[in-house]
Design goal:
Layout: H1 2-23, H2 35-46, E1 50-51, H3 54-57, H4 71-79, E2 84-88, E3 94-98, E4 102-104, H5 125-131, E5 134-138, E6 149-158, E7 169-172, E8 177-180, E9 186-192, E10 194-201, E11 208-214, E12 218-219, E13 222-224, E14 251-254, H6 256-261, H7 271-274, E15 281-283, E16 291-293, E17 301-305, E18 308-309, E19 314-315, E20 320-321, E21 328-334, E22 348-354, E23 363-368, E24 372-382, E25 386-395, H8 398-403, H9 407-410, E26 413-426, E27 432-446, E28 450-459
Parallel strand pairs: 1-3, 5-11, 6-12, 6-13, 17-22
Antiparallel strand pairs: 2-3, 4-5, 6-9, 7-8, 7-10, 10-11, 14-21, 15-16, 17-18, 19-20, 21-22, 23-24, 24-25, 25-26, 26-27, 27-28
Length: 460
């Protein structure tokens, strides 16, 4: 009797095992099928669902894989070496990913029996809290146990506008190793193979933490979300020591957010005047354009816009900056240790970087003051690929001369205008083309016997 019960239980278990194995067996000839054709046949027989992007698989054609008759075996042979990975969730759905693999475990990552960590490499309790259970694979898993360091790189962009984010700190707390993204949002970091936790942080952005298994050299692109923080009253009693994350002698970066909060001259922000707040920089004099750095004269300073020099840095006798504040993205003043790429200047180099057009939607703004008006338009020509930005300023100040009770001044004229344009074309993830132009005109006439005018013209 006991023997019969044992044989019955054994038969049921063996039958269940056979059914489980047969569930994933491909019983049709798949050689020569495109991936989409293979998916259609597989869905009709195994009742599974596939999730992927068509552009990932448009060139995939199945071959003859001897000894491979289950769905995982066929997918392993097909996707090997193609930067494509698949993941099967609890419901049996098959999800394809590109450039990284997703693993979900019930155990903490550091206890994964399939991973052999480097010698003396252990995670703290704080890191265990950060990691969670989702892991991103970088590189070929077959290279997991090879010796030596590997390189991870990628681009960091704003999730809403798709613009590159410069100055993002990428940090590995365990290794005390980090880097900062450049002006194009690109970063690169060299680390040993193994499981790592990377923290991406930037002022005004939500911090992002990514757990990754680094098997070999690869790419990891990151999108960050903007973060608005309502601030309460802050009392500063002393200046605490600041952590130095970038060592560049003599370079002063101007915070654009703070710059826009400064008092304006006749309704227009002046980047040249804001430089005077930096130690070692003095004004040339009241009512004069330009600035002096550590005793040097104004002509010993190099002012760059779009990487090209501007020789007349002001409009309207020095009351207005020659650069429209609407286009400014970043400003750096080099007072010493000037990089060789800027050529030779005795006193300083003021490098003004311009913004790129909005990659998502059309936007614009306009403003008017008693003697000037300005307009800015930006948006995509081709969404996420080709963008433009256009700004213009002009003055209508001549009407003021007509109000002055002085014949000489009533017969005088003074005006200016400037136009900026920029087109950005993202060729691919690593290359883009910028076309930038700037034109300005100033004219002055005093009582018909003194005439003075000049132009600035840039096209790069």
């Amino acid at each position: 009797m006991k023997l019969r019960i044992f044989l019955l239980i054994f038969s049921l278990c063996f039958t269940s095992l056979l059914n489980a194995q047969e569930k994933d067996i491909i019983d049709f000839d798949y050689n020569g099928l495109t991936f989409n054709e293979f998916v259609l046949k597989t869905k009709s027989r195994l009742k599974v669902k596939f999730f992927y992007k068509d552009e990932w698989v448009k060139d995939l054609v199945l071959g003859n894989y001897p000894g491979s008759n289950t769905l995982p075996e066929i997918l392993n042979n097909l996707l090997r070496g193609k930067s494509l990975f698949y993941y099967i969730d609890d419901a049996g759905n098959i999800i394809l990913t590109k450039n990284y693999a997703v693993k979900v475990t019930d155990k903490p990552i550091s206890e994964d029996s399939n991973f052999i960590p480097p010698t003396d490499y252990a995670y703290s309790q704080e890191e265990q809290k950060l990691k969670g259970n989702i892991l991103v694979d970088i590189g070929n898993p077959a290279d997991r146990n090879k010796p030596g360091n590997v390189v991870i790189s990628g681009y960091i962009t704003n999730k809403n506008t798709k613009e590159p984010v410069a100055g993002v700190t990428v940090y590995n707390q365990k290794l005390s190793l980090g880097t900062i993204s450049n002006e194009y949002g690109f970063y690169t970091l060299t680390m040993p193979r193994g499981i790592h936790i990377l923290q991406y942080s930037f002022i005004g952005m939500k911090e992002k933490v990514i757990n990754l298994e680094l098997n070999g050299t690869g790419e990891l692109n990151v999108e960050m979300n903007s973060m608005l923080i309502p601030l309460k009253e802050t009392i500063v009693s002393a200046q605490k020591s600041m952590t130095i994350q970038r060592f560049e002698v003599g370079a002063e970066k101007i915070n654009i957010t703070s710059f826009r909060l400064l008092p304006t001259s006749m309704g227009e922000s002046d980047i040249i005047k804001s430089v005077l707040l930096i130690p070692g920089v003095q004004s040339v004099g009241e009512g004069s354009a330009g600035f002096n750095v550590r005793g040097g004269s104004a002509d010993q300073n190099l002012i760059l816009l779009y990487g090209a020099p501007i020789y007349n840095s002001s409009h309207f006798f020095g009351f207005f900056s020659a650069v429209n504040s609407d286009i400014i993205k970043d400003v750096t003043l080099y007072k010493g240790g000037i990089p060789s790429r800027y050529g030779g200047r005795i006193s300083s180099v003021l490098d003004i970087s311009s913004k790129e057009g909005n990659r998502k939607e059309f936007t614009g703004n306009a403003g008017i003051s008693p003697i000037t008006t300005h307009l800015m338009l930006e948006g995509p020509i081709i969404k996420d690929t080709l963008t433009y930005m256009l700004t213009a300023r002009t003055t209508y100040s001549n009407w003021i001369f007509g109000l002055i009770d002085n014949k000489a001044l009533q017969n005088s004229r003074a005006s200016f205008y400037d136009i900026n344009g920029k087109i950005t074309w993202d060729l691919n993830k690593k290359n883009k083309i910028d076309l930038s132009s700037y034109y300005s005109h100033d004219a002055f006439r005093f009582n018909s016997d003194t005439v003075y005018s000049y132009d600035n013209n840039i096209f790069v």
